[in-house]
Amino acid sequence: MDVTIREAKETDLQVVKKYTVETAWTSLSESDRKELDKEKWTKHLLELFEKLSGRETDRIFVAEDESHAFLGYIWVGEGSNMMTGLKHGYIYDIFVKKEFRGRGTGKILLEKAQSYCREKGYSRIRLMVYVNNANAIGLYNKMGFKTEQMHMEKTLS
User: Fold this and answer.
1) DSSP string for 99-138
2) d(CA 100, CA 12)
3) Are 63 and 1 in contact (CB under 8 A)?
4) In the chain, at which residue ranges do the beta strands (DSSP E only) sit?
5) Which fold has domain 4-142?
6) How far apart are CA 3 and CA 62, in angstroms?
């Protein structure tokens, strides 16, 4: 299968938003999902998407096959280290449709994000992944990502 990566068009954004909501919701912990009103949370997430994805530093790249079928996307932009103020590339979201996972599409999308960040002059790229997402963690490790921080949580009663 030949995979082409291109910058997202306005017509792609509805599909990207749909999968952003889906993947973000399933990534949340069960306790978070229980505390949230999904409708209100979705509205909040979509407002955040509109605000952030429109920034000059951000790009959404779409993967498609030779018939132009949507395979997935990656959203990359600028982040900064709150301790140092140093800027870096940041992957806000990556998604590959289930039927195309394990075929190299995620790797190709990550390579595109890295290339974009190099063009922008960033010396590093970061992302956040939930510990229960073993497939993504495996891909990131293969691509040379290293664990730099760990967020921990305790439920208070």
Assistant:
1) GGTTTTHHHHHHHHHHHHHHHTT-S-EEE---TT-HHHHH
2) 18
3) no
4) 4-7, 59-64, 70-80, 87-96, 125-127
5) Aminopeptidase (3.40.630)
6) 10
Instruction: Look up residue 69 and give its amino acid.
Output: A
CB 108 within 8 A of CB 135: no
User: Residue 16 in contact with residue 8, Cβ under 8 Å?
Assistant: yes
Altogether, the residues listed in the chain come to a count of 157
Q: How far is CA 77 from CA 53, 80, 88, 111, 114, in A?
A: 8, 10, 8, 14, 11
Ramachandran bin of 101, using left for φ above 0, alpha for ψ from -120 to 50, beta for the remaining angles: beta
Cα–Cα distance for residue pair 61/109, rounded to 1 Å: 8
CA distance 68 to 65: 5
Show Cβ contacts of residue 13 under 8 Å, excluding neighbours closer than 6 positions. 53, 60
Q: What is the pLDDT of residues 35-93, one digit of tens each?
A: 999 999 999 999 999 988 889 999 999 999 999 999 999 999 999 998 999 999 999 99
Note the pTM of the prediction, 2 decimals: 0.91
